[in-house]
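Case 222 in the screening queue. Each case pairs one protein sequence with one candidate compound; here the compound is iron/sulfur cluster. For every case the pipeline is the same: read the inputs, emit a complex structure as tokens, and attach any notable structural observations.

Predict complex for case 222.
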Amino acid sequence: MKRQISLEEISDGKLYDSNDMVKAGCNDCKGCSDCCRGMGNSIVLDPLDIYRLTVGLQQDFETLLQDRLALNAVDGIVLPNLKMTEEGEHCPFLNEEGRCSIHVFRPGLCRIFPLGRHYENHSFRYFLQIHECSRNQTKVKVRKWIDTPEPAKNEQYIIDWHYFLKALQAYAEQAEDEKLLRTLSMYVLKQFFITAYDTGRDFYEQFYERLREAKRALQMEE
Ligand code: SF4
Ligand code: SF4
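Case 222 output:
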């Protein structure tokens, strides 16, 4: 989602790479679950998040959509997000002890929080959101904080997904044909989320096959 506020207002003014140390450590969040509550539709999920959730929970995307995920337009393109519960306005995966019940396969945005990503020149760096977590006081290496296997592959995937979406969102901003926009969103959902991935194969390999196919189908430049 595009953010209109300046980096200076929300960060410590620095940009970080994955090997840098950043003050994001929060003592294992003991007794706090603030960033798992009242987040509205803002925890938007990408294809890897959905792959991890469907494998980790052994449920397909459509089953998850019944109560734990929702679909919402993000700058004109419909994408899945974590659906806060109606009663408590908290994440459906937050357990009674106030801990994440899917910690091992939690979504990418939960992994980086309270870091954010600043994209530029077909790449990105991280920034620390200084107003989001009152406890981020201890220094930790960015890569360790994010705790994602195959970090280099993952970063390249994040970049490629971001810029693919950005091109679609730029198109959606100009488009006046609502029906065409709905068709485009449905295509993206089906191509990257609804159609199950083969769990016996590498996720990234399958993602790039789908991305190439989508770019061809949508006549986008490689
Ligand atoms: S707000 Fe900070 S301390 Fe609280 S759960 Fe989130 S990351 Fe942990
Ligand atoms: S998935 Fe886990 S870390 Fe992310 S918002 Fe839900 S409970 Fe919190």
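Case 222 observations:
- DSSP finds eight helices and six strands in the chain.
- Residues 129 and 161 are 22 Å apart (CA to CA).
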